[in-house]
Amino acid sequence: MALVRDNILLQLVRGTLGGQLTIYERNGQIIMAKKRGPSQKKPTDKQLEARYRMKVAAAYAKAILTDPDLKAYYQSKAGPGQNAYNMAVKDAYRSPEVQDIRFEDTSVIVTAKDEFRVAEVEVKVFDAAGKMLERGKAMLGRNGVDWYYTTDRLPVGGSVVILAVDLPGNETVKEVRLE
């Protein structure tokens, strides 16, 4: 590894030259080093999972580029140096978060957030024996974060299962026991 100082030829050069030499910048210093080869270690389960998730996210991002509305939406979320593809990959890589579930009379209020947008929230109500009594889609409130669902009844000893889904289809499930 060599540090480069005041070399006009290498000021703007980055990358691999001839498959043998890599030039990159770290903390404002230009560094020349031997090109790294592939790792000889087997990937861990976490690495394999991350690779798979990235492959799925990239496939989603590639697919949304064909939809002009979704492409425009993701482009509107992009910052400097980013594009719709980058934002779609970022969205597909993360699942929505169910932050809070509240009950008011026969209403279920779900606070769900995603870095981009939660597409839908589904509510399922179960009795104490585990039999599904009802299910339906919640309606998004005015604040853009809370989702409202009105049920016929909330059985004591039963449970409510919340399913939040974002644009790429990532799902988050949260269950609350009714006491």
Short description:
The protein has 179 residues and is of the alpha+beta class.
Overall description:
- This protein is α+β, with helices and mostly antiparallel strands.
- It has three helices and twelve strands; from the N terminus they run ββββαααββββββββ.
- The strands form three sheets. A four-stranded antiparallel beta sheet has the order 1-4-3-2, with no helix packed on it.
- A hairpin with a 5-residue loop joins β9 and β10 (146-150).
- α1 crosses α3 and α2 crosses α3.
- The chain is elongated.
- The protein starts with a strand and ends with a strand.
- The model has no long low-confidence stretch (mean pLDDT 89).
SSE arrangement:
Elements: E1 2-4, E2 15-17, E3 21-26, E4 29-34, H1 45-64, H2 68-77, H3 84-93, E5 97-104, E6 107-113, E7 118-126, E8 132-137, E9 139-140, E10 146-150, E11 159-166, E12 171-177
Antiparallel strand pairs: 1-4, 2-3, 3-4, 5-6, 6-10, 7-8, 7-11, 9-10, 11-12
Keywords:
single chain, 179 residues, alpha+beta, four-stranded antiparallel β-sheet, 12 strands, 22% helix
Helix and strand sequence: EEEEHHHEEEEEEEE
Question: What structural class do helix, strand and pairing data support?
Answer: alpha+beta
Question: Considering DSSP H and I runs of 4 or more, what fraction of the residues is helical?
Answer: 10-25%
Q: Return residue spans where pLDDT drops below 50 for at least 5 consecutive residues.
A: none
> Which geometry do the CA atoms define?
elongated
Ends apart, CA distance between termini: 64 Å
Question: Quick check: average pLDDT?
Answer: 89
Q: What percentage of the residues does DSSP assign to strands (E)?
A: 35-45%
Gyration radius, rounded: 24 Å
Enumerate how many helices there are, as a single number.
3
Q: Strand order within the widest sheet?
A: 1-4-3-2
Number of strands: 12
Largest sheet descriptor? 4 strands, antiparallel
